[in-house]
Specification:
This protein is mainly alpha-helical and 80 residues long. Helices cover 89% and strands 0% of the residues. The protein has helices at 2-32, 36-56, 58-76. The protein is elongated and about 50 Å long. It starts with a helix and ends with a helix. The mean pLDDT is 94.
């Protein structure tokens, strides 16, 4: 059971790391205009990971969904 807990913790850390990276690249695109393709691909990968996480458990998919929504809003909302 301890090994399963380590596995779930590792998956959660990977999910949070991927989400933070997607938000960071979306922010770089918004501010500087760099990493356009990288941020778009990473948001798509995170969206696929969110679908997978919701298939496993709703509680496991919520953090990824928050990161997808936040990164997409940062990247795609028009500037004033």
């Amino acid at each position: 059971m301890e090994t399963l807990a380590y596995l779930v913790f590792g998956l959660l850390l990977a999910q949070l790391g991927l989400g933070m990276l997607a938000m960071l690249l979306a922010w770089f695109y918004r501010i500087r205009g760099t990493f356009a393709l990288s941020s778009q691909i990473l948001i798509a990968v995170l969206a696929l990971e969110t679908i997978w996480a919701f298939g496993i458990s709703t509680a496991f998919g919520v953090p990824a969904a928050v990161f997808v929504i936040t990164a997409a809003l940062i990247r795609y909302l028009p500037k004033k």
